[in-house]
Each structure stands twice: as structure tokens, then as C-alpha cells.
Specification:
The complex is a heterodimer of chains A (372) and B (127).
Chain A: H1 22-38, H2 71-74, E1 86-87, E2 95-96, H3 104-128, H4 135-142, E3 149-153, E4 168-173, H5 176-183, E5 193-196, E6 211-215, H6 224-237, E7 242-243, E8 249-250, E9 254-260, E10 278-285, H7 289-302, H8 305-320, E11 329-336, H9 342-349, E12 352-360, E13 363-370
Parallel strand pairs in A: 3-4, 3-6, 4-5, 6-9
Antiparallel strand pairs in A: 1-11, 2-10, 7-8, 9-13, 10-11, 12-13
Chain B: H1 3-6, H2 14-17, E1 26-34, H3 41-47, H4 53-62, H5 75-80, H6 82-94, E2 95-103, E3 110-114, E4 117-119
Antiparallel strand pairs in B: 1-2, 2-3, 3-4
The chains are: A alpha/beta (372), B alpha+beta (127).
């Protein structure tokens, strides 16, 4: 059984239009504010219930019949993703990924369609919903010894790159659009060092880094072989353990990996042990302009000035990223949900040693080092 | 991309990683910018032992900087020599490669750098 509630992208940030947390509501409006500003003509909301495509000014897009998919609107999104999108007349449920690939080449091409193209399309919206570091990860980064050098593989918009100013981090991501956000993270131009790279072909030398983090990335790999290869690639980056003649030993560099958990019965998504592990999870870009403007005011009051300022900065970026689609658009991303113990098995299968592990808000995480 | 980061980058082609020719990558047609950043001497002193000094020397020369000494300065030397600390800060932290290419000395593949971002995605035949 799949739940009928649309899923949030990763734990921690809701993206659907359904009633989520206050944070989700504010995140959502922060990206829509950009598109509202870019469309000079104010649109009228269709029926105010948010379940239908909005009626926008005729000069911008043809008005779709309510409740029906409209191909004209879908083509207004980027070319790369148009085949994956449909207008959401109602919030879509997650679906089992029946096309789960078998060969490695198929898997790569499957991920190109169901992961990479999607992130390119949703990058401004995605980035605007990602600005708060998760505490376990922030703690890991803050505990590193001064001068540590490491990587953030799948850095997204770079929200972890500046967490600890006493270390040097180099971020990489498969999405060039997200990397562009990461480079100027915090609104400071060129504040972060970033590169576009594939997690299975990383440009990092063997055994040099003190640490590597990889958050919400490996669950996008569509075969177990590739997921293990991705963990292996992280372990390869970090220092091997060593001991010297004076008896000092060093357990080497550490990796921190976060993946989405199958067991999340307390989340809105409701998946749990026994649910399907390979899923297409919708990312809905809502366009409910009137409603959002109202929420924005509410949010500005409720949140600290600092947080508000950050949201505004992200919004500015989103606007610069040009074409927000004019109607609700749903993108399907592939996910493998990890069952309890599975991540540890994958780490150990490729020569990793689990140092710490845990469950945090619908995610499994491990800190691991190299066995040798 | 800071010169410091170039010290932690190599060719993304798997077969190249174990070869000595792939590291460091060689800047080509590099356009640099110089930022004005406050010296963080603690960060620099702590990063120094992690730097591959011969690779940094190669990169510095290829980017048109004066030759670095054959041996890296010790912590004590750096603490006592403010000019050397500033020079290293300038090279590692303040100098960024904005445009150009990074070339693998083993396979010859050229990775484009645009707006300070290097792109390491490989064409299908090199994956």
C-alpha cells in the first residue's frame, strides 16, 4: 500500500502543497514569491482550494481546463524534464518504481532520467527549501579538528559547506544548477569551492581527506551494487588508519552518510517495514500565488529576522534561475528507502568500519572509517 | 576554485587515479581572480601538514607564481615568518581559478572551469 499523501523530498523539508509544517509552508512560499514577482500580471486563483491549476493571465499561458492535464503548460518547464512532468490536479502519491533497472548501464540511464534531470529542473525551488543544516551533521562537522580538509559529495545548494569555518570543504554535486547555488552560499560570491561531479566518478585523490559527508544522495542510486560503489568511493577519499612506532594510532578519515529510511511510520508518508523500498516520489511545485503571499506575511512575523533574510536571499536566487513553470508541476524522483541495518551492511561490504550510527528524522545515518 | 582545492583534485577517470601522471591536474588557459581575505593563521598552520607540497609547487609554477621552496616550511618557521604566511595565504586562499581547463597528465582529458566551477562529468566512453 502506498500512502496518498505526497511525500516531502527528503526528511526535514516538505514540498507538497498539502498542509505540512509551518516551515514547509514558509519554504514553499519563499520560492513562489520569486515567480510571482516575475509575472507582472497578477493571476487569479482558480477556486481557492489549491487542488486545481491556477488560472494565470492569458498572455503568459493558456488557461487549462480545470482538473485536466494540459500539455501546453507542462512544456513550459525545461526541456530536459518535460517528459517527466504532469500538472497535478490533485496531489499525487508515491508510486512503486516498477522500472527498477537491472544492468549497470540501464541503471545509469534510469538515474539520469529519474534523478539528475529532475534536480536540474527543480534546483531553484529545491535550493530555496534547503537552508537549515541538520543537527547531527552540523555536530559532526563542528567536531572536526581545525584545519581538516574534506568533501561534501552531493552538496546540493551548499548548506553544509560553511558550517565549520575552521576546516576546508570542497563540495561536489551531479547537478550543475545546484552547484551554482552552492558556490555563492550565504549570499557571498565565490565563498565556497565546488565542482560538478558524479558520485561514482569522483575527482578526489585516494586517501587524502580527513572526512567526507554524503547526505541524501546514495538513496538515489537504483541498484545495490551502485549504492555500495558510492560508499566505496567515499571511503576511498579519506585517510587510511595508521599507527606509528611511538604507539600513536589514528583511525583515519571518517565518512558520514545519510539516507532515507523505510521505517518512518511517524512521518506523513507513513512508510514502514514491509513497504516497497524502490519508489518514485513526487516533488510538487505549487503555484498558489494569493495564498502564498498571505502566508509570507505570517511567516515574516513568526520567524527571526535572520531566517527571514535568508529566505529572501534564496528567493532572489530562485528568481534569477528564470522559468518557474506557470502551473503546479510534479516531478518524479527515484528513491531507494533503506531498511534498518541495510546501510551498515553496505558500508561493511566495501571495507568500511561503522564507528557510530543512528536514526534521525526518517533517515538512517552512519559514521564510518576504513578498515585498512 | 581556490588553489588550495586544486591540491585535492585529480582526474575523475578511474583508470587514471592510480597513476602518478594524473595528479595534480594541470591548469590551462587559466584566468585567476584574487580575493582580499583576512589571514586565518590557525587554519593555515593546521592545513599545511595536509598539503601535498610537490603538487602545490607544480600548480603554483604553472599558474605563474614564483617557485616555492623545495621543502614545505615547518610550523615554527611559518609562525616566525609573517611574510611567508601571507604569501601562502595569498596563494592557497585568495587566488581562485575562474576560467580555463584542468588537464589530466595521464589521459589528457580536459575538464572545463567556468565561473570558478570545474565540471568533472565524464563523456560516456570514459566512465
Amino acid at each position: 500500500m502506498q500512502p496518498t499523501i505526497p511525500a516531502a523530498a527528503d526528511a526535514g523539508a516538505a514540498v507538497s502543497g498539502a498542509a505540512g509544517t509551518a516551515a514547509a509552508a514558509s519554504q514553499q512560499q519563499s520560492s513562489s514569491g520569486g515567480s510571482a514577482a516575475s509575472h507582472a500580471a497578477a493571476p487569479a486563483s482558480a477556486s481557492g482550494n489549491g487542488m486545481q491549476p491556477p488560472i494565470t493571465a492569458a498572455a503568459i499561458v493558456p488557461v487549462p481546463p480545470s482538473g485536466q492535464n494540459d500539455s501546453t503548460t507542462a512544456t513550459a518547464t525545461s526541456k530536459a524534464s518535460s517528459s517527466l512532468t504532469a500538472n497535478a490536479a490533485a496531489a499525487p502519491p508515491s508510486t512503486a518504481a516498477s522500472l527498477a533497472p537491472s544492468s549497470s548501464a540501464e541503471a545509469a540511464s534510469y538515474e539520469a532520467t529519474h534523478v539528475h534531470a529532475v534536480y536540474e529542473s527543480i534546483a531553484p525551488h529545491f535550493s530555496a527549501t534547503r537552508y537549515k543544516p541538520w543537527p547531527v551533521i552540523a555536530d559532526f562537522l563542528s567536531s572536526l579538528s581545525p584545519g581538516s580538509v574534506g568533501f561534501d559529495v552531493g552538496c546540493g545548494n551548499g548548506k553544509y559547506l560553511g558550517v565549520n569555518p575552521g576546516v576546508h570543504m570542497l563540495g561536489s554535486d551531479r547537478s550543475a544548477s545546484l552547484v551554482r547555488f552552492a558556490r555563492d552560499h550565504g549570499g557571498v560570491e565565490r565563498s565556497q569551492d565546488v565542482a560538478v561531479a558524479d558520485g561514482l566518478s569522483l575527482p578526489f585523490p585516494e586517501g587524502r581527506a580527513d572526512f567526507a559527508i554524503c547526505v541524501a544522495v546514495i538513496h538515489h542510486m537504483s541498484t545495490r551494487e551502485r549504492r555500495r560503489e558510492a560508499v566505496q568511493a567515499l571511503l576511498d577519499c579519506v585517510r587510511r588508519p595508521s599507527s606509528n612506532s611511538s604507539g600513536n594510532s589514528d583511525d583515519g578519515g571518517k565518512i558520514l552518510v545519510y539516507v532515507w529510511a523505510l521505517e518512518q511510520s511517524n512521518s506523513r508518508r507513513g512508510w514502514d517495514e514491509g513497504s516497497e523500498q524502490d519508489l518514485l516520489v513526487p516533488w510538487v511545485m505549487k503555484q498558489k500565488k494569493e495564498k502564498k503571499e498571505k502566508k509570507e506575511k505570517k511567516k515574516t512575523k513568526g520567524k527571526s529576522a535572520e531566517e527571514g533574510a535568508e529566505a529572501v536571499a534564496e528567493e532572489g536566487n530562485a528568481e534569477g534561475g528564470s522559468s518557474d513553470p506557470p502551473a503546479d508541476t510534479t516531478y518524479q524522483r527515484y528513491y531507494h528507502l533503506f531498511r534498518k541495518g541495510e546501510l551498515e551492511e553496505d558500508v561493511e561490504a566495501v571495507g568500511g568500519k561503522v564507528v557510530r550510527n543512528g536514526y534521525d528524522k526518517d533517515n538512517w545515518w552512519v559514521v564510518a572509517s576504513r578498515c585498512s | 576554485m581556490k588553489v588550495l582545492s586544486l591540491n585535492f583534485l585529480t582526474c575523475a577517470v578511474k583508470a587514471c587515479k592510480s597513476t602518478s601522471g594524473a595528479y595534480p591536474l594541470h591548469p590551462k588557459d587559466a584566468e585567476l581572480v584574487e580575493d582580499d581575505l583576512e589571514v586565518n593563521s590557525d587554519l593555515l598552520l593546521n592545513i599545511m601538514p595536509r598539503i601535498d607540497w610537490p603538487a602545490l609547487s607544480t600548480t603554483a609554477t604553472e599558474l605563474g607564481f614564483p617557485s616555492l621552496p623545495a621543502q614545505p616550511p615547518t610550523k615554527e618557521e611559518l609562525e616566525a615568518d609573517e611574510k611567508m604566511l601571507r604569501d601562502l595565504h595569498h596563494l592557497l586562499m585568495e587566488t581562485q581559478m575562474m576560467e580555463g581547463k584542468l588537464v589530466c597528465g595521464n589521459c589528457g582529458h580536459e575538464y572545463a572551469v567556468r565561473e570558478g566551477i570545474a565540471n568533472f562529468l565524464l563523456p560516456a566512453h570514459l566512465v
